[in-house]
Design a protein that fits this description.
By secondary structure, this protein is of the alpha/beta class. It is built from 16 helices and 13 strands.
């Protein structure tokens, strides 16, 4: 869908890369569809979006906002004042920018801006990335015009008439792996014909995944498995020392993977957390996946994301508490079961929604048209 009239869009939210990168993907897609579009981001002061959005070439306003801590802490005292401050600042930003549409992608800043916009009868859209929505989006859903979701069955939580199944925007350069296997093996200096395991802990690392991979290095070596091990910064040195204890040339330890497309292309099996964007990427690339949901996220989103795949026989789920005791045997069993790997790969591909940014951008433009 294209739009010729110049429009203004606010995109609000952030806090994690899982919110920020999809937001930037939506913005980039809108720029390609609407000549002269003006886009303003609104995020939370001190969070990573304040830098990432500017690097992507967009202006951003910051709100003084954070959420309630689940544990008893003095930091919660300031939360009511932050909410009031964020609502007042959102009102000021909206009055000055005069958006045609406001988009919320999740995070505390998203709630404040969308809340004010809907009160002012400005067309609003929220994007829910997870299979189980947070309380903020459930609250906002009563007033917004459109709700873009990544999983089916979301009418349990949102008004069905507002829901559009779009998927989660992902970085296209990351999921473009077609015909790259040979190049990827050369990139990691791996031997063709050998099994390749990709273990992803996220940019900050995942202690359980890292400790489990370390525990089973000897078992993996016996099976002649080549490993791409993304550790995050905190575990990087420990992992390097552990990997150096094994002879051969089978382990690549990295604190961060610059060419994620190469890692996805090389892998035969992937071990990962179950964040919404990670799950969306895994569905598109279609590789057998072992998911270990993080227990440290609100509403236990990751377990619910993983269960959505498990119900479709599209992934294997290991609870974080069980990972150290069963991960190694689970991976070996999967490598030795061709039929299981083929089934998982086939089923996970059926859940892919690869054109999410394009679909969400069209919904934003449609709201501008309606206005």
């Amino acid at each position: 869908m294209e739009y010729n009239k110049k429009i203004k869009v606010i995109i609000s939210g952030g806090g994690t890369g899982g919110h920020i990168f999809p937001a930037i993907a939506i913005a980039n897609t809108l720029k390609g569809k609407v000549e002269g579009i003006e886009i303003l981001f609104v995020g939370a002061k001190g969070k990573m979006e304040m830098g990432k959005v500017k690097t992507a070439g967009y202006p951003i306003e910051g709100l003084w906002i954070s959420g309630l801590q689940r544990r008893l802490t003095y930091k919660n005292i300031s939360v009511p004042f932050k909410i009031i401050s964020s609502l007042l600042k959102s009102n000021k930003v909206i009055n000055k920018f005069k958006p045609d549409v406001v988009v919320g992608v999740g995070g505390y800043a998203s709630w404040a801006v969308v809340k004010v916009a809907s009160f002012k009868a400005i067309p609003t859209l929220i994007q829910e990335q997870n299979s189980f929505p947070g309380k903020s989006n459930i609250n906002l859903s009563l007033k917004v015009n459109k709700i873009c979701v990544a999983f089916s069955g979301m009418e349990k939580y949102f008004p069905e008439s507002k829901i559009v199944l779009t998927g989660n925007p992902v970085r296209q350069e990351v999921v473009n792996i077609e015909n790259k296997k040979e190049e990827a093996l050369k990139y990691f200096d791996f031997e063709p014909g050998k099994k390749v395991l990709l273990a992803i802990g996220g940019s900050l690392g995942a202690r359980t995944i890292n400790e489990s991979i370390k525990k089973y290095l000897e078992l993996f070596a016996q099976e002649n498995i080549q490993i791409i091990w993304q550790t995050g910064n905190h575990y990087f040195e420990t992992a390097k020392v552990a990997a150096n204890n094994f002879s051969g040339n089978n382990i690549r330890v990295m604190n961060f993977i610059e060419r994620m497309d190469m890692a996805y292309s090389a892998a035969d099996i992937i071990v990962s957390r179950a964040g919404a964007i990670s799950v969306s990427e895994l569905c598109i690339i279609g590789k057998p996946a072992v998911l270990i949901p993080s227990p440290n996220v609100a509403e236990d989103h990751q377990t619910k994301n993983a269960l959505t795949l498990v119900k479709s026989k599209a992934a294997i789920l290991i609870n974080d508490s069980d990972c150290r005791s069963v991960l190694g045997e689970t991976i070996i069993k999967l490598f030795n079961d061709d039929a299981e790997r083929i089934m998982l790969s086939k089923n996970i591909k059926t859940l892919a929604l690869p054109h999410a940014a394009d679909a969400i951008a069209d919904e934003v433009i449609a709201l501008a048209n309606r206005k």
